[in-house]
Design a protein that fits this description.
The chain is an alpha/beta fold and 651 residues long. The protein has 20 helices and 20 strands. The longest helix has 38 residues, at 25-62.
Length: 651
């Protein structure tokens, strides 16, 4: 019976005790009646619950085993989610960060911005909505001296933060996560207005990816930064060896404009959890949104009791970026083009500043003849057109088996022709937004024209629109081959170029015929076939029957090979990359120490070289007899070292 039944029974027992003590029954009668009613209600409830449980059990028992397992899994997931939600909601205050008028308005009434005849004022960055060309004001272009001052403030704050506990760092992350979940609309609106992407793409790339990273750090971050035991090896087996991950200090980050929220918070959460300070230089084409995000960061640091100068946002041009690289940061992460990445590496070499380079990408998307078209067509469209194709790990080369090529082209074209394009904010639901960079649309169009001139067929799009804003329409090309620039150069735009292939081998060969090697994607009903193809692709990441899903698996590192850069951010390796590795070796037992053997003490004896030979034979030689012989040699070196003295040459 439920606990209430026990309570009623206890009340009845107390009434009997009171009556035995002489309390008049007429005074106890109402209380007794209420207790009887409560007891009867409790028994009825218990009976109903028992009947319900019996019915549920009989229904469950009648289900197939697979359904029972599925329900059990669903119940376990629901229980885990509920417990996690209750835990996280009670450990983080909800921030209040007011948004400005331009950050909340559906439509802007500011003056229109135009690059034509524009003379950039010294020390200012013009900001505008790339979809409407409405002005968003200006941001300060910081000088080298100003950036160095911010690095110095961050370093002072980091010295305090380095001693913080993992519990405090998790609190900071929970504060951020709770704010993000509660303020998704404003975060996405600000990102969309600054970068031109639709709100749904902002929800995908800005909010979901950031929340997943924060959740992974909360769940697993401490595990991967704890001291880790290592083997001591054969010769010094009596030692205890381990490594520790120590914060690098001040991490510099230079991030692009395509995901203005995530590109700031991605390095922020990892570095602050690792104990670092962060100086992040945002793109001049994504500076306006950093005002709002900076206020969020300041409020979160205060709520978590962290130093206020722990995160510094830098705005500016090349001078500011150069200062981040050479102005005193202990390590730098650069995300951007291969051309600028080479410049960053050259500058970092002057101060021997370690750099992580995540550069361009031109990811292949392989469609096998047995691919699930219900899955692959919508995924291909999102891989090509999400954020108007402005993704470093976007799908830019589609290799489709000849048996399903015509169907793939037909279904992709049918949907691409229906996509709606326009401003992300204030114009209703759109599928594709604007190009963030000025002249980006013209650059994409030049690649499309080159392909068409060499024989490609343009089914949808392919024309520069005569409308206000920096737009290029979703474009689908077929009959594409590797003689065309569009298959060699990074497009970074809404183009889906399709190459017909005859076999898996041809698809792999063409996919690897590229200077870039960031991500890759394979679609087939056969998991073994997909894994076999993926293993042959020369890329930093591969997804089978999904698109770029490795980035949502936040335990995995993100990065590429060839001209896509080197080293990694994200995942275990990226988190540990925010640290310097320090090695330790200590005696296991205090009375078992390393003493320099007599033959090796200065001045060394005549037997010193033979003694080293014996050590090598003892620990690394093959066979028991050899090891016994080595022990004998070592003993002779100690007892009769003169026997190893070099013989005098005959006169």
């Amino acid at each position: 019976p439920p606990p209430h039944a026990h309570t009623c029974a206890g009340a009845q027992a107390q009434l009997r005790e009171l009556h035995a003590a002489g309390v008049a029954m007429d005074k106890l009668a109402p209380m007794a009646a209420a207790a009887e009613e409560a007891s009867a209600a409790a028994k009825a409830l218990a009976s109903a619950l028992s009947a319900l449980a019996a019915a549920a059990w009989s229904t469950l028992a009648a289900l197939p085993l697979s359904h029972q397992l599925a329900l059990a899994l669903l119940a376990a997931v629901a229980h885990w989610l509920l417990r996690r939600a209750l835990c996280e909601s009670t450990h983080a205050p909800l921030l209040s960060v007011p948004a400005g008028e331009l950050e909340t308005a559906d439509e802007l009434s500011t003056e229109r911005f135009s690059w034509e005849g524009y003379a950039r004022p010294a020390g200012e960055i013009p900001c505008y909505d790339p979809a409407t060309m409405r002005s968003l004001g200006t941001m300060k272009a910081m000088t080298r001296q100003e950036v160095q001052q911010r690095i110095a403030r961050a370093r002072e704050a980091q010295q305090q933060w380095a001693g913080s506990s993992f519990a405090q760092r998790r609190k900071l992350l929970r504060v951020l996560q709770r704010f993000i979940v509660a303020n998704q609309a404003t975060i996405c609106r600000v990102a969309a207005r600054d970068s031109g992407k639709p709100l749904v793409d902002a929800a995908f790339g800005e909010v979901l990816a950031t929340c997943e990273k924060i959740a992974w750090l909360i769940d697993e971050g401490e595990r991967w930064l704890r001291p880790e035991s290592r083997s001591a090896g054969r010769m010094v087996f009596y030692k205890r060896a381990w490594v520790e991950w120590r914060p690098v200090g001040v991490m510099g980050a230079i991030v692009p404009w395509n995901y203005p929220f995530h590109n700031v918070f991605n390095p922020l959460v990892a570095n602050l959890f690792a104990g670092n300070a962060l100086v992040v230089k945002v793109s001049e084409h994504g500076s306006w949104s950093s005002q709002y995000y900076s206020r969020v960061i300041e409020a979160a640091l205060e709520a978590a009791g962290a130093p206020k100068d722990l995160v510094q946002i830098v705005t500016g041009y090349g001078e500011a970026g150069e200062a981040v690289v050479t102005g005193g940061c202990d390590k730098v992460v650069f995300v951007g083009s291969t051309t600028v990445g080479r410049m960053v590496m050259k500058s970092a070499a002057q101060t021997l500043t370690p750099v992580v380079l995540e550069l361009g990408g031109k990811d292949p998307f392989i469609v096998c003849d047995d691919a699930d078209f219900v899955q692959v067509v919508p995924t291909a469209l999102r891989g090509a057109f999400q954020s108007c194709g402005q993704n470093c790990a976007g799908a830019e080369r589609f290799y489709v088996h000849e048996r399903v090529h015509e169907r793939f082209v037909r279904e992709v074209v049918a949907i691409a022709g229906k996509l709606r394009q326009g401003p992300a904010v204030g114009s209703g639901t759109v599928d594709c937004g604007a190009m963030c960079m000025p002249q980006a649309a013209a650059g994409v169009h030049a690649l499309v024209q080159d392909a068409v001139a060499k024989g490609a067929v343009c089914h949808v799009g392919g024309q520069l629109p005569e409308r206000e804003g920096q737009f290029y329409p979703p474009t689908v090309l077929s009959n594409v081959d590797h003689t065309m620039r569009i298959m060699k150069e990074e497009v970074f735009g809404p183009v889906l170029p399709i190459v017909k292939v005859r076999s898996d081998e041809e698809a792999v060969a063409l996919a690897n015929d590229c200077d870039f090697g960031l991500g890759s994607n394979v679609f087939t009903e056969s998991t073994s076939r997909g894994r076999r193809i993926a293993k042959q692709l020369n890329a930093g990441m591969s997804s089978v029957n999904d698109f770029c899903v490795t980035y949502m698996c936040q335990s995995l590192p993100f990065g590429g090979v060839k001209e896509s850069g080197f080293d990694r951010f994200a995942g275990v390796e990226g988190l540990r990359g925010c640290c310097n590795i320090k090695s330790y070796a200590v005696d296991v037992l205090p009375f078992v120490k390393t003493y320099i053997p007599a033959p090796l003490q200065y001045p060394v004896s005549d037997a010193s070289f033979a003694f080293c030979n014996g050590l090598c034979e003892l620990f690394y030689g093959a066979g028991m007899l050899g090891k016994v012989g080595a022990c004998v040699k070592l003993l002779r070196c100690i007892v009769t070292p003169k026997a190893f003295a070099p013989r005098a040459k005959a006169a």
